[in-house]
């Protein structure tokens, strides 16, 4: 029987316990504070360490994708004559990670056994997909079944998120400086999402955190109603709110599984501390 191996990158923000349990291989992206200070996301820099470093330094770091060579090494280490790889990655509109993985596949995959997927999502909106596909692979499902479920998840997974400060989005070019300043002054909270192409966009705006969170839930109810769902809540130094939201969502939706996780250093560099996000996928 063909063994299906699942690869993703560190921006999926999957809890370490799930990575280990499901045998997922995670390729780290890089976080750079200065020429002398660079880290591998989730390897040499944890989420907690990252936010402490940002707070202490006042620096909003830059990020970069793995090289094709890194992916080649990973793929070669996983492949044998009875295996295939499903490699699911951060939106190609947000990073060159998918491109690096694709270049690596083209260099070594003569038998077309590596399937590189652009999730068109970020953070645990990728993770929720990766975890469900990994569960199927661990159950011994066929490659066709795993890829079919993957396509369903790519269609059925949605995410809304809210940032605490617009400074990080502004620095990384997601919104203009004037919009960031005005939003902060007026306590306007953009309800953000990812488009079908995988780009961050402002879905709508709300005045204050409470109204924004309520509206996020309304939007998800419009999409999922009473359907059974998988739930992911991910946050940047905002665990108390994440736990409160999880409890509320489990009361209001037919939740089949739920995960609360921290937003790692790479995505955190773009959204900043205080961010709260909700992803849902049809079960």
Protein model, in words:
By secondary structure, the chain is α/β, with parallel strands linked by helices. It folds into two domains: 3-155, Rossmann fold (3-Layer(aba) Sandwich), CATH 3.40.50; 158-282, Hypothetical Protein Tm841, Chain: A,domain 3, CATH 3.30.1180.10. The chain has helices at 16-22, 47-57, 68-78, 97-108, 124-138, 143-156, 167-171, 177-186, 209-224, 239-252, 265-271, and strands at residues 3-9, 25-27, 30-34, 37-40, 62-64, 83-89, 114-118, 158-162, 188-194, 200-207, 228-235, 254-262, 276-282. α3 (68-78) crosses α4 and α5 runs antiparallel to α6 (143-156). Mean pLDDT is 91; it is low at 176-183.
Which terms would index this structure?
single chain, 283 residues, alpha/beta, Rossmann fold, Hypothetical Protein Tm841, Chain: A,domain 3, 2 domains, six-stranded mixed beta sheet, four-stranded parallel beta sheet, 11 helices, 13 strands, 43% helix
